[in-house]
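Thread: "does anyone have the structure for this chain?"

Original post by V.I.:
We have the sequence but no experimental structure in hand. Need at least a predicted one for the grant figures.
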Amino acid sequence: MVLGLDPGLAITGYGIVSASGGKPELVEAGVLRIPRDRSLGDRLKELHDGLQEILQSFTVDAVAIEQLYSHYERPRTAILMGHARGVLCLGASIAGLQVHSYESTKVKKLLTGNGRAPKAQMQHAIQLQLGLAEPPDPPDVADALAIALCHHFSVSPLQQILQPTRKKT
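Reply from O.Q.:
Generated one for you, tokens below.
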């Protein structure tokens, strides 16, 4: 199973997909909501605790996360996202999982053919890929599922056999 993460300090989307039989299937998806009125340290701890709860509830084989990018117009957003992403990467590593990073443009291009696809198009693509009755909402969930699907489609079964994603302890 692949856990996809769309990091954020207020809302972090997560999605778990399984590929039994080759076709990806939705296992679980949702968001970790963290109140904005808490201190940065408290928010990061709550994000870590939420990730640990997910990892304890499901047998995840790999973690895929959106690669950090920066907006020249909003550098503060990139810095805050970096804090959240760092906590998620550390939490996955402590759990013995390798973290695979994907650029948002690569994820969008793989699933829609358009590296700059809008949120609604991504939600619709995820709905079609996973055979859902409705598009995933909020968009953070769709983004997390898209990242998980990108990892699923990027790693061949032979590569999974030759290079397991779980670290040996």
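V.I.: this helps a lot. The chain has six helices and five strands.
O.Q.: and Strands lie at 2-6, 11-18, 25-33, 62-66, 99-102.
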